Amino acid sequence: MFSVIICSIDPNRLANVKAMYEAVFHGTDWELIHINDARSLAEGYNRGIARSKGDKLIFSHDDITVFSPDLPRRLEKHLSGFDIVGVAGTTLLQCAAWHLAGPPHIFGQVANPSEGGRLTVNIFGAPFPVIRNIQAIDGLFMATRRSVFPAISFDSTTFDGFHHYDLDFSYSAFRAGLKLAVVNDICVLHASGGNYDEVWQRYARKFQEKWFAGRPIQQPRLFRWAAADAANFQEALEIMTPSYWRQISEKQVG
Fold first, then answer.
1. How far apart, in whole angstroms, are the C-alpha atoms of residue 62 and residue 41?
2. What is the rounded CA–CA span in Å between residue 71 and residue 50?
3. Positive or negative: CA dihedral 170, 127, 82, 24
4. pTM across the whole model
5. Strand intervals (E) in 27-151
6. Please, what are the averages of pLDDT over each run of 10 residues along the chain (254 residues)?
7. Are 188 and 140 in contact (CB under 8 A)?
8. Which CATH class name applies to 2-253?
9. Contact predicate 62/15, CB 8 Å
10. Backbone angles phi, psi at 193, to 5 degrees
């Protein structure tokens, strides 16, 4: 059974994301756990875990759309070999932002809305459908097995807001010896981008103090990863499912 845990105070966003998950999980045993009064994402997710019944848990933002086919089957396969999977992350976490590791350490694919109803597909790195040896994962979409709890949990004491809960959770799992992966064959549209304001900086300092005490905080910057323009979801799906993947054996990526 899948448990989708969402913290949301926006009725329209919640209705849209609920309808999306109802469609992608049609015919599959699943439940939606909605937390509408989370004091932080870490606190809300921990409460959602306690309420959930599934053996596979999804932590999802309320402004995403999964548009790749067969989400349940793909997650079943990925979670049979990994403890936590996501759609973007890094094999080398050096500071409080996963993307600051830069190429060749960042991986994943995420679509964002563009002008005129079009989409921009950001390709951080997608040489294979599955990228092993990930150290930290972006929190827009994460899935895990219930068996990882209570060995790890979301740190709601340190991260009592809405930033860095995801890096802390996934990096804690990595440090605990769990197996993480970025799964490029799960295609997601994220309606919002990053905001590196003063609040983000404050939680970045908390993260830095917890994991990298003594290291200076790097200033957020964007590397020139690949980006492609798409007219619609179908075209974005074609971009995010390159033909050369069909030539890659299961031995290489499983």
1. 12
2. 24
3. positive
4. 0.94
5. 30-35, 56-60, 64-66, 84-86, 88-90, 106-113, 119-125, 130-131, 136-137, 141-145
6. 98 98 97 97 98 98 97 97 98 93 94 95 97 98 96 96 97 98 98 86 94 77 84 97 80 42
7. yes
8. alpha beta
9. no
10. -110, -170
